[in-house]
Amino acid sequence: WVFEKQSLDGxxxxxxxxxxxxxxxxxxxxxxxxxxxxxxxxxxxxxxxxVNGKLALHMAIENGWPCHDLLLAAHxxxxxxxxxxxxxxxxxxxxxHHHVSASPISIDVTYELLRANPNHATTLRREESRGVxxxx
Length: 136
Description:
about 0% strand
């Protein structure tokens, strides 16, 4: 099946799609979600694979894809996986994306990701109070 075939870099079709910027037009966002859902239904394990140092969730957040909930349903552990390039947890990456793009979607994504695991904020706060690394 074509959705289960890896490319030369080890990626699957979902990685190829999510590695490109998503449109900001409403109709395009609806289509983007539908495409992501189709790819995940065809091969859910693709959400668990690291490609070029990133999970599909990292790529989606970085490129403005409105599908974090679909990706987390397929791979909930991704919520606890910092992006190895930026060392940011998914909620932090979404907040950074909002700061850079001013996208109203990314602030919702930030909130939803943080709400899915509020322990990350507690950990960061605890580290900051001890004078250890704190990322904002």
